[in-house]
Amino acid sequence: MARFFADYLFASRALAERHGLAWDFPVNALGKASKVDAWDLTALAGALSPPRLLLRNFGFDTKTLQHIDAHYRETDKSLIQLATPSAAWQDLIKAAAVNGILVKRNSPTHVIGQVVRPLKLIATCAGNTEPWELAFDNIQRALEVAASIQPSGQLRNTTEAVIRYVIDYNHLADRSPLLPVKRANGDRSVAWIRQAPRANRLRTQLADRHEAQKLPDEKAFWEFTRIVFTESPQTFIDALRLALGQTLIMTGLRIGEACMIPTDWSQLRAYSALDGRPAGDYGGISQSLVLRYFGEKQQSADVEGQLLYPQIQHIPNSFEEPLTETLNRIAELTAPLRQTLTAQIKSGRLLPDFGLDEDVTPAQLFPYLSGNPFVYDDPERHNLEARYKISYDVAILEEIEQRQKNLAANGGKLRNEVRIYFTRLRRGREALLPCRNQYGCIPRRPRSSRMNYIDGTFRIRDLEAFLRAAMPTKLPDTGVFRSADGSEIASSDFLFLLPRRSLLEERSGGICDVRKYFGVARLISPTMMRAIGDRVASTGGKTLFEKYAKNEADSRLTMTTHSLRHLQNTELFRLGIADTIITKRFGRRSVAQSYEYDHRSLAEELDAIEVPKLANDLLPPKAQQVLRMAMAGKIEGSIIGEFRRLQKKKGDKAAFEFLAVEADGFHTTPYGFCVNSFTVDPCPKHLECYNGCRHFSTTDLPEHRENLSSLKAQLLEAKQQIAARSSESVGYANQLRHAASRLAGVQSALDCEPGAKPFPNGPDLSKPTDRDDGHSVLD
């Protein structure tokens, strides 16, 4: 074992043991530990569940195994069959998880998805290779498999990040660093590894967007917007999802931030002039709506556990009314759930409506445990359910309860669902939840385990203990969060609450009595992400598109929640909002972060540049576009140079008149920009801009430089192949000269600063006298 690897494990093990974690525990044949031995990463991070994330699966990555197995079957090779990764790989997974949570202060979700998963993928691809024995072939294979499993490229990026920041950074492999490396068939560095497949990398048109795949698909976005703003929810939880979708569109918050909006989210701020009068009297704004929320990605490295960081967002006037209506409606819908959860938190009980020593019949308990308000057969059941689903009005639930009481008083028939529910609940665990008689005693007869559904009772003390042990997935969220300002925030203080695992609604089409149901939970981000088909979340249930789409094609649409944040950020840039305002709106720490979310097309970027009024009067649209690019420093050339000379010597009017005549042609090429007027003939160089054209100017766009680098490698290979064929013919010399001249031109373009002209002394190809016979000026 390598020394650095042993040191890394030793330090990580000591850190884990200081926090009460047992390092060595057994796993089964598939590498899975029991829930008792598993590490609770949520508790380790000081976070509250749900979600409760356990580190217990140390086996091979299933999707990676399937991919490798299919590949080896196709090539008639045998795959090394191992039950689980070696003990060293399992220890590395534990060590990386401990460091991710306790040292780097990453969230449990990040550690499970972006540290543990890539490590398991690498271990699967490595087979019987130990971590310190990793070589470039193992890494290359892992990256290729990651790209094949997830075409979006995200898994490949996270896998590379683990290689770089876990394996290489800590020198865990004998051959570290494994990144960067050299490509086998060329002299380019490992930049190719970082380039995950991205759609539309090259912006060949002014309308093309940079990294457009981070924006929502246009059809999916408009269908999603139609659904969340116009459709009537089929379930109570769908009502929350639709409202959350509206909130995401109007605010651009992260999904986790939107889920944790507090109940006291609204603040009205008044603005006045120095004399005390409202600012609106002087043309300003007298009052604005502010949204309170808790920002993510604000954690400090020296904080124990996870804190909530209060943030605010000013809401535009156009969104004030709809956002207020949406969030107030959610507050109204979740008020009964909030009342129940508040009582549970204060009392520390699950069923605070009853005394601990109170004996209660199954008929009374059924709505509290299952959520189903129909205990007795009611001929109006379906009508009442349909009425409730129109508005989710609590008054209808009260009407149902009164009808149930009347049915019970008049000898109504107990529904069979009640018997089935409690029979299944106690099956095999009757001793943990004994059924008592009407006197509160446990019968001692041999058949005492059978329930008496009419006169039998359960003691609440016994029932609460049974629920905590037997139904952990339905327990309410009674945890308390700590805020960065020193206050404590209970789960009941959040706006979006839902009945936890309300299967009656989601699967059976019934309704849930939110006034009584004991399992109250916060709405968490995976619930919404699954509802729109976000690939990051695991699949489960129908998406909103499948439920509410008007046709089959739309039902197959999917979207990512984070793309809405990218969309709003881009729209604000497009509308000319200052980057400082955008940065503050989204709770970021630096302006540079906002530009990571800027996906405007080049045409939209240029539209944001204001041109002088005189230019608007004198210049046609295309010439105005050229002026904006010149003002932004994105193009250079002979025409731009002459324009600036005239502007400096003779003033704006003369310069604009010159530009109006000369700048009728603007071209975006695969290698840079060209400002030249070919009124009659096309480009005589056939867009070989790198072949000594004086009108060619380089850019700072990475796509253009990547194309030049790729072309350089191709020309180098062509030159080598030509040189390898020994010949004295004229054609041989011409081919070699042609490749050498093009290669020199490409190298000149690569060596040139962005925005500069590689060939300032090249011929003016717009003049017939300067045109050559097709040979390069570098020949």
UniProtKB/TrEMBL annotation:
Region (Disordered): 751-779
Alphabetical keyword list: Coiled coil
Coiled coil location: 701-728
Segments of skewed composition (Basic and acidic residues): 767-779
Protein name: Integrase
Organism: Salinisphaera japonica YTM-1
